[in-house]
Amino acid sequence: MPDPGYLLGLVLVSAAITWALRAVPFALLAPMRRSPLIGRVSAQLPLGVMLILALSTVRDVAFHDTDRAMGFVLAVAVTIALQLWRRSSALSIVAGTATYVLISTALASP
Amino acid sequence: MRSTIIEATEPVASDIDDRVGSTLTLVAPVGLGLFPLGIGFGVLVVHAGLPWWWATVSTGLIYAGSLEFLLIPMALTGTPLLAVAATALVVNGRHVFYALSFPLQQVRSPLARTYATFGLTDEAYAMTAGPQAQTWTTKRILVLQLLLQSFWVAGATVGALVGTRLPLDRLQGLDFALTALFVVLAIEALRATRDLRTAGLATLCAVAAQAVFPELMLLAALSVFAGLLVARSALASRKPADA
To answer: Which of B4, B11, B57, B225 has a CA positioned 20 to 30 A from the CA of residue B193?
Structure first.
C-alpha cells in the first residue's frame, strides 16, 4: 500500500484542481453574464454538450463484437423512440438500459 | 426556501416541487447507472491493491469519475504530484464550460455554492442545464447533486468492501444508463431549441476529436465546439465598435 501521506497529497491536489476547474469559471464569467454573445452561446451549449457526452460513451462499446454493438444500437433506438413517444426521461432511461443489460447478459452467458 | 419569487424568463410554472422524494424520482434512473459504475470502481480499487477506504475517500472528496479511474494506477506507482496535477487539469478541463449554463444564481448560501460547484459533474450539469432548472430552488439543486454523489460513493464503497464476493459479472451493461441519460437530454434540448445546425456542429466536433485526439476526446470536442459557437455568434452579430 502506498504511503498514507502521499495518498493524502494525491487527494488534495486532485480535489483542489477539479474544484477550481468547476468553480473559478463562474467568477470569471459573472461580468460577462449580461453580454448578448455569452447569452446566446450559453443557450446553445447544453444541446451540444449532451450530444458530445453521449457520443463519448460510444467509444467504450466493443465494436469488434458485432453482437454487442448491435445491442447498443438497439438500446439507443429504444431510448430515442420512447423519449419521442412518451417524453418520460425515467421511462426512456430505464427501458433503454434494461434492453442493453438483457442483451449483454444474454450474450455473456455460455 | 421558497419565499423569493424569481422572475422567470422561461414560461415555466413557478411552483417548483423541491421535495426530496420528487428529486429522488428524477435522479433514480441516473443513479441506476452511477451505482453499478461505482461498484466497478470499488472492485478495481481493491483489486489493484489499494485499501478499501480509498474508494470512499476518492469518490467523496475528488468526485470526478474518469480522473478517479486514472488515479488508481498513478497512486500505486507513486506518480509525482505535479504529473497528477497535470492529468487532473487535462481530464477535467471540460468542466470550465459548465459555468455557462449551470443555474448557480439559484443557489443562495456560500456553503451551498461551494458544494454546488464541487459537485458539478457531467451528470449534475446534464440534469440542470435545461431551461426548467433555471428556476429551481437551492434545495432542489443541492438535493439533486447530493443524491447523485451518494449513488457514486455508496456504489464505490460497496464495491470495495464486498464487490469481489458478489456475482457482479452476471449483470452486464448497467452503465448504459449514462448513455441513455445524455441521449434523452440531447433529445429534450433539441426539442426546446430546434437547432439542428448546432446539433450537427457538435456531432462533427465529437467525431473529429475522436479521430484526432482519441485520448482527449471530451476536452478537445468541447473546446472546439465552444470556440466555434462563440465565433459563430460573434460573426452573426458583427456590429461596428462592438467589443
So the answer is: B4
Interface check B173 vs A, CB under 8 A? yes
**Record: contact B130-A46, CB cut-off 8 A:** yes
Q: Does residue A84 belong to the interface with chain B, where contact is any CB pair within 8 Å?
A: yes
Note down pLDDT in tens along chain B; length 243 residues: 444 444 444 444 446 788 999 999 999 988 988 898 898 889 889 888 899 999 999 999 999 988 998 899 899 989 999 999 999 998 899 899 899 889 999 999 999 999 999 999 999 999 998 888 989 999 999 999 999 999 999 999 999 998 777 765 566 787 788 899 899 989 988 998 899 999 999 999 999 999 999 888 888 999 999 999 999 999 987 755 444
Residue B27, helix vs strand vs coil: helix
Contact B26, B127 (CB under 8 A): yes
- Chain A partners of B230 at a C-beta cutoff of 8 Å? 37, 41
ipTM, 2 dp:
0.90
Question: Cell numbers at residue B116, please?
Answer: 454546488
φ, ψ (nearest 5 deg) of residue B171 = -105, 110
CB nearest B225 (choices: A48, A59, A80): A48
Q: Collect all residues of chain B within an 8 Å Cβ-Cβ radius of residue A79.
A: 179-180, 183-184
Amino acid code (one letter) for A64:
H
Is residue B96 within 8 A of residue A21, CB to CB? The reply is yes
Interface of A with B in 86-105 (CB under 8 A): 89-90, 92-94, 96-97, 100-101, 103-105
Would you say B58 and B44 are in contact if contact means Cβ atoms under 8 Å apart? no
CA nearest B174: which of A4, A94, A6, A1? Answer: A94
Distance of CA B151 to the CA centre of its chain: 13
The candidate with the shortest Cα–Cα distance to B32, out of A92, A97, A100, is A97
